[in-house]
């Protein structure tokens, strides 16, 4: 198919792949990027919030032409039971800055734009091409790829595996293990379309301002999970994700969970009258620091979701993906400049650089959180949310009960549900895992 | 727990999506079996596109046309060999308009 040799082949045109391809092509490397979708973005699913700082480090002027939906001025965190939500809302005028910090995006559109920038930087981008196998030399060094197109192998000095959470090549090639059901969440999402002015009225925003709601509680039916609602320009991304291990143990259907969320009395009025135009599903790596696989080897590096670089606690994925793609590219550029071969030893530079970045530092901070949430889902996602709702309602409802009795009832409810020891140990475990 | 209303709903949801189906070349296959394992059986509930269903002999069957390529079934059943999992050929499969 292509009878030329490349400096680098990038597999996948998602956030990490585009960041890697753009960075290398901008530096003059001869880059081939392969994408199995009909167009870049056609296979990519995200919530989606995009953090400006990480993209700015790659494309400083991205705000000039990137398809951005709304910049976020308000974040709500809701703890929900069946009929209520107790919320922390943070809204600040400071977020209405010249260069806003976070945006909602629509991935299919955003990725098309990013890919155009990659091509303009000089990379060759080939869509509708599924890479089927890595090509190795007799010493096991990765030297290229086979694709499902007619023709032979394509060769390169280094292959960047930006193949996403469910990447086949790395696992089939023995470069990393298959994800475990307890280390991966399944999220489903619908796109609800509403007129711009309706969204602005319902969420108290104007112009390109946007609002985020993230919700935990009985909505995940006792599973470790998170619901989310993100405002786009004229649509709302509404979804929910839970651990695959929990879905399996409870035999729950993700679409039933999403339907229940849509019908929750706190959510229903926000999406009333909307037209649903797409239903998507996607896996999210949730294993954190302890699940990070081998990141480099002879002739290859792995980036983004394929490397399980996702901060589940802060719901940050695409910025870790972009950053790992950029750093991998910068490491490759350095090795190339020294005219050194793309060996495991030389590509170790990528891991050294990544370890020094926020990507690994943040994941290391929360290394114990995935196990804690996995093992305590019932308490954290059902018992406590219900108790919080009861406590809040007890506090709000004026019914002639003396306040001292209300306080005692609330305390008693917590102790009855979890015991004094249970409450203290949950608090300590959470504090330790958070530290 | 089989709920016909839910089934109707998920098919309705998938109707909004765009697919380019690679006719006659399903990218996921279920290995013939007598009785499904717990994980394989769970796919009849957990698959977000409801691609997996029980036949009247109690075996799990797949119709991969509505597949959103999320990989949940791969995580649960590839290692045990119960399913054979691949991505569709380049360009085929689900085509997200928004993603």
TrEMBL record, chain A:
<comment type="similarity">
    <text>Belongs to the ETF-QO/FixC family.</text>
</comment>
<dbReference type="InterPro" id="IPR036188">
    <property type="entry name" value="FAD/NAD-bd_sf"/>
</dbReference>
<comment type="function">
    <text>Could be required for the formation of a functional nitrogenase Fe protein. Probably accepts electrons from FixA/FixB and reduces a quinone.</text>
</comment>
<comment type="function">
    <text>Part of an electron transfer system.</text>
</comment>
<keyword id="KW-0274">FAD</keyword>
<dbReference type="InterPro" id="IPR039651">
    <property type="entry name" value="FixC-like"/>
</dbReference>
<dbReference type="Pfam" id="PF26311">
    <property type="entry name" value="ETF-QO_FixC_C"/>
</dbReference>
<dbReference type="Pfam" id="PF12831">
    <property type="entry name" value="FAD_oxidored"/>
</dbReference>
<keyword id="KW-0285">Flavoprotein</keyword>
<feature type="domain" description="FixC-like C-terminal">
    <location>
        <begin position="369"/>
        <end position="435"/>
    </location>
</feature>
<dbReference type="InterPro" id="IPR059103">
    <property type="entry name" value="FixC-like_C"/>
</dbReference>
<protein>
    <recommendedName>
        <fullName>Protein FixC</fullName>
    </recommendedName>
</protein>
<keyword id="KW-0560">Oxidoreductase</keyword>
TrEMBL record, chain B:
<keyword id="KW-0479">Metal-binding</keyword>
<dbReference type="InterPro" id="IPR017900">
    <property type="entry name" value="4Fe4S_Fe_S_CS"/>
</dbReference>
<keyword id="KW-0249">Electron transport</keyword>
<comment type="similarity">
    <text>To ferredoxins from P.putida and C.tartarivorum, ferredoxin I from A.vinelandii, ferredoxin II from D.desulfuricans.</text>
</comment>
<dbReference type="InterPro" id="IPR012206">
    <property type="entry name" value="Fd_FixX"/>
</dbReference>
<comment type="function">
    <text>Could be a 3Fe-4S cluster-containing protein.</text>
</comment>
<dbReference type="Pfam" id="PF05187">
    <property type="entry name" value="Fer4_ETF_QO"/>
</dbReference>
<dbReference type="InterPro" id="IPR007859">
    <property type="entry name" value="ETF-QO/FixX_C"/>
</dbReference>
<keyword id="KW-0813">Transport</keyword>
<keyword id="KW-0408">Iron</keyword>
<feature type="domain" description="4Fe-4S ferredoxin-type">
    <location>
        <begin position="58"/>
        <end position="88"/>
    </location>
</feature>
<keyword id="KW-0411">Iron-sulfur</keyword>
<keyword id="KW-0535">Nitrogen fixation</keyword>
<dbReference type="InterPro" id="IPR017896">
    <property type="entry name" value="4Fe4S_Fe-S-bd"/>
</dbReference>
<protein>
    <recommendedName>
        <fullName>Ferredoxin-like protein</fullName>
    </recommendedName>
</protein>
